[in-house]
Fold each of these.
Amino acid sequence: MPKLKHLLGIRDLSAETIHMLYELADRFYEVLQQPTRKAPALTGSTVALLFFESSTRTKLSFELAAKRLGADVLNFSAAGSSLAKGETLLDTALNILAMGVDAFVIRHQGVGTAHFLAQRLPVPVINAGDGTHEHPTQALLDTYTLRRYFGYLQGLTLTIIGDLFHSRVALSHLHLAPKVGLHLRLCAPPSLVPPTWYNLGFPIYHNVDSAIRGADALLVLRMQKERQKQPPIASWEEYARHYQVRPEHLSPHQVLLHPGPINWGVELHPALIQAPNSRILDQVTHGVAIRMAVLYALLRG
Ligand code: NCD
């Protein structure tokens, strides 16, 4: 297997690499169940986190993953940095590199920013979300959660509902599903389906009931209001009336996922907060193991 140099998108990963990452995550998941929760395989390494967009889960779990592996973590925050004085992103990264950094994790509003840095830095770069493009570790942890729950992925049907147009999570899943044998269904109002997606071979629904019926799992996506100019249909109330996932949509054996943050009352009905088939917090737990796997594979694999 060729050594993994960067993690920029699921598009670049082979099925073999994806399975290797799941298996590594299994090992780290076991470590996280032990009292010490540490596998100090990256002692002496330093990971820099460059987050230019807000984040709770992704940033904290990358930080925790690096620390559980014994690495040092450098947290860069754009606010208060020399970017305000006109320093470029590349200069910023090169200066941080000069302090002795072994890997960068970057989230940025610009599509392709992680690729841009990866071409110019001599160390691994991990894309933690580039604009509306990809968010590979999220798709890995979502599918890892299904793999842990069902024991396999091959042949499962996953329905993704929500803002397909602006979600980087959706695009990463489009690349991931065929590589692991997941059947993907997509559901959104027409205004939130990128026109080219109709030609990709995935069934596209505009009706929540039919999209969910018979599926093994459901991944609900947040309305990316910060990236939308207007509501996807006439009003937000209208959107919620027709596209919100509610308790009556779900049967007890169907698994509910959401990458977070959730806008309760928009894409998900608040009564689902305590839903027994929700694996939403498991996704967060598994995010640490997946990110440990990615850091380990890039720095030691
Ligand atoms: C996602 C993201 O940032 O793309 N969240 C996450 O990483 N946990 C999804 C979202 O913001 O809706």
Amino acid sequence: MKKILFASSEIHPLIKTGGLADVAGSLPKALADIGQDIRLIIPNYQSIKDIDQPRYVCTLRVDNRDVNILETRLPGTEVIIWLVDYRPFFDFPGNPYVDEQGNPWFNIAERFTLYCRIVIEVAMNRAYLDWQPDIVHGNDWQCGLIPALLSLETAPPASIFTIHNMAYQGTFPHSTFVQLNLPGQLWNPEGLEFHNMLSFLKGGLTFSDRITTVSPTYAQEIQTPEFGYGLEGLLSYKSDVLSGILNGMDLQQWNPNDDDHLVQNYSISTLKNKLANKTALQEAMGLPVNESLPVFGLISRLVDQKGIDLVLACLPQILDMPLQLVLLGSGDKGIEQKLQNFALHYPEKLAVTIGYNEALAHQIEAGSDIFLMPSRFEPCGLNQMYSQRYGTIPIVRKTGGLADTIEDALPHTIAEGIATGICFDEATPSAFLEAIKRTLVLFESKTHWRKIQQAAMKKDFSWENSAHQYLAIYNAL
Ligand code: ADP
């Protein structure tokens, strides 16, 4: 049995802005289920919800600040979560990265530096918890200083660092490095320095014993300039300790046969019951109720990564086709505005909901026939897995985790019963439109469509498989 300290800036259901929270909420549970002693650590944000009243454990003094450690459990499990409680930093409304108005926290570097310093205290068993991990597993740039600071300790635990998205690096000017009071020996091009800037992400990559990312294809892609953002050289250099492990999905939360958000549950053997969800979605979205028109769904952060510009570029052509589109998302204000304008012009075909809405996300997955995910890059992606489980056929760009989780519907893959979606290569409006047209043709052939739906719903996206792959790495460390 390994003792693992798992550090993440978000954990579902406590606080979530994206897929990282889903991973941090389910991988530790899967590892606990296979007998590992894993504990989580996260800042005690004001917006944290859905937990039992935490218990005060101790107060640590780091960097001239008194920081409390509180203890609670991951809901529905025995997994311990330690909350790093420092009110002057974390007791504000907003999410881990931005305030209520959507502005990045002015002191975000200080916040996550303090968090990393506390992780080090726990990792080195200096936090009165009477527990020392064998392994510290950090995630994304917010945890990047953990391997860096651990490298300065005597006999530290082994470290593993997982990249969920290379696009977010946590870079700051040199003056921030000075303000943060970080050890001077970390400031060099073999350390935290990246083109004269402080890079948290580089710290995670440089100093960790193992690096993982969330799909095998993305592990290859980030070693190239297109996806590596200047760190591709470092990643290639460390390629012998870099690997890709696909995320699993939460099978309990995303189960069409046991989903409280749906008007009618269904499974592979009662697929016809999916229709009630389509009708309910059309009604709820104010779209004409029509069984034969395919409903396309899209749920996403509205940012460049997700290829929303491709959708916008061909939206008039898409909406000229016999289909309806239901879209849920939030993010870039310009994109939100453009989508809402389109919705005003096409009230019979396009329904746009701006915001974050968990229940509606489930209803769109169940009520749509087809799901759009034209990402420019996608480290792993979860919605295409949810879609497959809900018999909602995804159209995806062949990149990262999308390439690893979808089998393109071609004549031979359909015949073999392994096709589960539609893939396109080029991130261009014309390639995307071609994929949509190809999908509409398939949708007309009910036998083909049913076959694709069944293959998709049968796929195993459980965490168990991935948890064993992580365990193999922990054991090798
Ligand atoms: P990323 O982490 O890049 O945002 P993923 O596909 O890995 O993308 O995970 C996104 C997660 O966030 C999914 O669980 C998805 O359903 C959810 N999500 C994204 N936007 C919304 C939204 N507006 N409302 C509800 N859930 C959303």
Amino acid sequence: MLLPLPLAGAYDYLVPEGLEVEPGSVVTVPLGQRELFGVVWDLLPDDGRAASDGGGGKVLPLERLRPVIGTCPVPPLTAVARRFLAWVSDYTLAAPGAVLRMALSSPSALEPPRPVTLYRRAERPLPSELRLTPARRRVLEEMAESPARPLAEIAAAAAVGTSVVKGLEKAGVVEAVSVLREARFAAPDPERSGPALSDSQSAAAAALRQTIAADAFSVTLLDGVTGSGKTEVYFEALAAALATGRQALVLLPEIALSAQWLERFEARFGVAPALWHSDLTSAQRRATWRAVAYGNAPVVVGARSALFLPFPDLGLIVVDEEHESAFKQEDGVPYHARDMAVVRAQLGGIPAILASATPSLETLNNVKAGRYAELSLPERHGGARLPEISLVDLRSDKPPRLETPGGGQAWLSTALRAAIAETLDAGEQVLLFLNRRGYAPLTLCRACGHRLQCPNCTAWLVEHRLAGRLQCHHCGFSGRLPRNCPECGSEGSLVACGPGVERLAEETRVLFPEARSGLMTSDTLTGPDAAADMVRAVQQHEIDLLIGTQIVAKGHHFPQLTLVGVVDADLGLFGGDLRAAERTYQLLHQVAGRAGRAERPGRVLLQTSEPEHPVMQALAGGGRDAFLAAESEARREAGLPPFGRLAAVILSSPDPGQVDAVAAALARSAPRQPGLTVLGPAPAPLAVLRGRHRRRFLVKASRGFRLQAALLPWIQAIKPPSNLRLQVDIDPYSFL
Ligand code: ADP
Ligand code: ZN
Ligand code: ZN
């Protein structure tokens, strides 16, 4: 029996007489004084005893085993789903129970469905004294031939208030019935026709349909420039998978920001898909989880955790924007959803499609090695041209100061200012991209040089002037901006250093007072609705000048946007991240792709102090292949992913002495094997996070090395004190 707890292995329970269970059954069991959900992992048929998988559960004599309490009214997890959970646990070195918890993420879904009240026409003639208002007549017409339906649905269909239906219930002509009903998502219609595809799109779509027809594991990279129609093309694969009657899963990096994607899905398939992301209410989670488990959700569109939903018959997985780092989960069980999607596809014997305009080196390397197939869409749809990208050298074109009180610091160069003015004059839209939330990334005392730092983290506090707060972007700490320097007490000596989007908006208001501007960051878009409203406002040209963080980079289609200005292209290029160059390239390419998506050509200005940097050269010259080749070569030489393997081991504790002692002990017992290097311990770049002191090891190994086998005995030999946390991150993407 596997319990959704961070325990080492499975537990043994007795199956009482008369209780029907099979491997995968979800049951309730006692543990200590508690009652828990668990999943039957294995059965020993001879004595009907649920047995551990040998993963560490002690073998107890039969008479000491406690019995299973009961089964939950949900379908058993399939063998593929269980193999997937076990695989993820083995790979990430997370306890199987911790992985199971991700699969049983909606505990209320495991309880029996609650009855809902539906209304139907009572089987009796209309009493003669019934007053038949037009509203009542409409309701009765609506209900005449129809089965029992929810109150709100009937009222909406008849265009009346619910009280009209209730009134008819009182009069005895309508009756309420209580039924158990499973949530069901309407079936998308795979036969509806999509847009007429271009030749290259048709060819790619046909190849993808082939992978569905092959009914076997495969991975295909759909590599197409932004605006080439990748979505339309993989919709064809979705249609083919749906036509076989199986389920399909689409993973998107920012599901909360995907309003346009959802509109297109509805336009293509006639209905909305099931959604899965962290903003769902618990009732929505429950309904969706059950609908998936019962096969009542043909298409699920979700964030990475959707991979752990209980699909009984998954036939296709699509990972859109496969290069996105949002697919990497950093806390809890660290895993990369793109990689685990490929594993899930392999275990299920089904195709996976990875789509991107800037595929990751990992994926390109798999294509090169022949493990993945590749389909290219080299052109934008409908003749739209790719934008012209040019570099603005900030060393020679220093942003001129503004004639405003307070020094008038500015961040827009003369060249970019001129381009903005031209674009606005032409009645077109501008996007200014700056990947920094808030007003200023640093606040400094002019008198003593003191910098305002988070009390819980090794990080500067970021001023958010709109909210009137200082915030830590790592732990969420928030406080008022003090009037006096907390260090030397000087009055009015604190000054903002550097730009954030809010400060940039201030600059554009001075330079372009006529332009209607909008701010798009995770602080201003506080939910899917706000995001959708903003996207609509830009599309309908209610906004001339949009200022945004990476949130705007993703997938939006703004036909009238013809200029993208990247305010600080170098941001993110430096720091200890092995993928810094690759990521900067991907992000800036993606942002640049927002320009000129329709008939009007677009242009992009990148402000940089490093115009010779290979990333800038690649962006300006369009030389993606040359850049990737150079980047690959550098990684290969350094033995870094995808040519070598990495794992991080992070220790953290509120007590710095304790974390150092455990780190030293781990360093002494570190595995010493050929092909393996253990670096560290070193204080993490974020040496203190949420009040915990952090030390890191980085483990490097050659590609074929069985990293997990070397790591497991090492970390398991340590019995950490209770307030020390040890986290293993296989294939780390964050090095903070
Ligand atoms: P990508 O995902 O490659 O950036 P999209 O699939 O978003 O590209 O397509 C870009 C735009 O072009 C979208 O508005 C889409 O509806 C449109 N488009 C793509 N292919 C076609 C087609 N064959 N017919 C009509 N419109 C298309
Ligand atoms: Zn001071
Ligand atoms: Zn903090």
